[in-house]
Structure formats: structure tokens, C-alpha cells
Amino acid sequence: MAEPFIEVHKLVKTFETPAGPHNVLRGIDFTLNKGEFLGLLGPSGSGKTTFLNMLAGIDKPTAGSVLVNGVDVVQAKQRHLTRWRGRNIGIVFQFFQLLPTLTVVENVMVPMDFADVFEPRERRDRAMALLERLGIADQANKTPDMLSGGQQQRVAIARALANDPPLVIGDEPTGNLDRMSAGNVFEIFHEMAAQGRTVLIVTHDRELANNISKVMVLADGMIEATTLEAAARRRTQELRAIQLRTQERRALKTKSQEMRATQ
Ligand SMILES: Nc1ncnc2c1ncn2[C@@H]1O[C@H](COP(=O)(O)OP(=O)(O)OP(=O)(O)O)[C@@H](O)[C@H]1O
Ligand SMILES: [Mg+2]
Q1: Which of 15, 172, 248, 258 has a Cα-to-Cα distance from 160 of 20 to 30 A?
Q2: Does residue 203 line the site of ligand 1, with CB under 6 A?
């Protein structure tokens, strides 16, 4: 039987800004079962990162509840939450957030040292095995600033998998990777889901999303189950709207320049 792993109820997030309140999430109800692999889509600024931050307890919602594997992420005390997150969620952040003064292999070991799931003597070998799996073992002793964007992203993925967490969350985790590396990373995610881990990935990559069993779109502060085709259609429409707006703006600018020139 399907076992809910993430349960979100009436989730609201409003940011107070100088321009007034900005309602990013407007009452989301959402369930993800154990062992499911979900692709989350949605236009830039629709609140995907905000939503992931609520699930991981990195930020608190304005209203609503979030349960992850039975843990009340909204009510839990910060100290408890930090430790719980370290053991239970592997997060690939949109902007990597690697520690600049540590080497690559040390970066991957940080969550292991923090969560104490694996024995100290196993940790370096495990980190090296993950780096190997992601094709960057040869970068292990460099600091992150010496790596390309795609290599840094793979370090961030290795770090997210360090404690073999039951939940993996990725915020466009393959955005900087070539097709082959991205495919390889998605294979790892698929494998994790097949082993009963729950995987939630924000992605814009249609081809990769094609193989994901479940796709949802975040738009206008709400989340909806959809087909990949509908999501793609929506994205094409959005891109067309952006193109049109840009063309209009260009035309206006040219017109006003012409008018100024004739004055
Ligand atoms: N701390 C904050 N204070 C005020 N507004 C914020 C804050 N964080 C995010 N926002 C706003 O909330 C909206 C959603 O942001 P978010 O980063 O979640 O979008 P996203 O879907 O992840 O976009 P992208 O695809 O570009 O990463 C944006 O309009 C953003 O400006
Ligand atoms: Mg984002």
C-alpha cells in the first residue's frame, strides 16, 4: 500500500517586501509517497525553491502544516530539526553551497561527520566512492573554486547522497551538467527511488523528466498534478509570452528613439 512520506496541508508562504506582501505559496495540499520520484516544474519565480525550503524546514511557512516521515517540520525545534535534516534529507541546493575552504572530498564528508550515520573510518572511502560514481574522483583534493560549475554541482550531489538519506531533494540538480552527466545523475535518483527512497527534483529538462513517473507544476502559488505534455505546452506558452513582451519593449524603444531623432 502507498505510504505517504511527505504530507503538506494548506501551505501558505507570504514574504513581506517593501512593495507589500508577496504571496508565493497560496494554500498547497500535497502528498508524496515513500519510494516515489517526483519531478517539480514551474516558471522562474513561481516558488519552487521556497517550497523545497518549507519541506526541509529551512524556512517556516506563514500557515499550514508539513509532515515528513511523520515529523512535524513546522513545529519542531530548530536544534532537533537540524540534526534530523542531516540524517534524513539530502539536499542539492540550486547554488551548490559548498564550503570554500574545504577540499571536495571533505565537503562530501561534512554531512557524515555531522550526522554520525557511518563510522568515522568508513567516511573517506564512502565519499570517494560517491565522487567516483559522479565521475569526479580526480578532483577530490581540490577546493571547490578550482572546479567548473558542472563539477561543483556533482560535488553537491555527492554530498547530498553522503548519508544515504531516505529523502533526496534537488533544486535543478543537473542544471549545469551536459546530457550524459545529467542522465547519469538521474539514473542514480531512479535507483534510489527503486530502493524505497523518496526523491523530489526540480527540473526544467523535459527529456529527463520524461522518465519520471510523477510530474507536478507549481504555478500561481498552487501545485497541480499534470502530464508532461501539458507542462511543456505551458512552458512554451510562457516563453512565447516573454518573447512577445521583449519584442514589444524593443519596438517601443525604437519608436521613442525615432521620435526623439526627428524632434
Ligand atoms: N526571502 C525572500 N524575501 C522576499 N521575497 C522572496 C524571498 N525569497 C523568495 N522570494 C520571492 O518569492 C518568489 C519565489 O522565489 P523562488 O526562489 O522560490 O522561485 P523559484 O521557482 O525557485 O525560481 P527559479 O526557477 O528562478 O529558481 C520570487 O518572486 C522571489 O522574489
Ligand atoms: Mg529556485
Answers
A1: 15
A2: no
Model confidence over 209-261: pLDDT tens digits? Answer: 777 878 899 988 999 876 666 767 777 777 888 888 989 999 999 888 888 88
Q: Does domain 4-226 bear CATH number 3.40.50.150?
A: no
The structure's pTM equals 0.86
Q: Where are the domains of the chain?
A: 4-226, 230-263
Average pLDDT over residues 42-56: 94
Phi then psi dihedrals of residue 176, to 5 deg? -105, 10
Q: Is 216 in the pocket of ligand 1 (CB under 6 A)?
A: no
Please give the distance, rounded to the nearest whole angstrom, from the Cα atom of residue 6 to the centre of ligand 1: 22
Read off the DSSP letter of residue 4. E
DSSP string, 81-101: HHHHHHHHEEEE-TT----TT
In sequence order, the β-bridge partners of residue 33 are 4
Phi, psi of 233, rounded to the nearest 5 degrees? -60, -45
